[in-house]
Protein FAR1-RELATED SEQUENCE
Amino acid sequence: MLDSIAIHSTRFTELEADYIKKDVVAVFTPTIFDLVKQKIDYVSKYVISEILVGFYLTAYVVAMKEKKQRKFHIDCEFTESSLAAIHCSCCNMECDGMPCGHIFYVLNILRAEKLPKCCIDSRWTMGAKSAFPCIQKQAART
Ligand SMILES: [Zn+2]
């Protein structure tokens, strides 16, 4: 059973996402980092509309400030007190292998300093660079 919690949206405004950027820059190749950074920069465009708290799972409902009817559900799984997995209803991670701005928004709220493993596609990491010397630019999604 999930309980709904009232949110004071002003609490989550002006998010900088600086701490996660330090981890992201170390994880992804420079080309992918440029794409991921754009998604991190989107965090200021979102607001929390609802948080549903369960025992192992917390669901954040995130909306765009400009289009509040457009909502995304971000599910966070916790083991003990740490974030084990995060999933967004936009499925950007599953399609592009890169976390979406909604995920970064929630990671910022959680003050996460590291990307959860589920948000790291090994294709785009520094470790994969030697295996794939020529990384093609991904077409921007509209
Ligand atoms: Zn998303």
Residues 29 and 126 are 5 Å apart (CA to CA). The chain has one domain: 3-128. Residues 30-41 form the longest helix (12 residues).
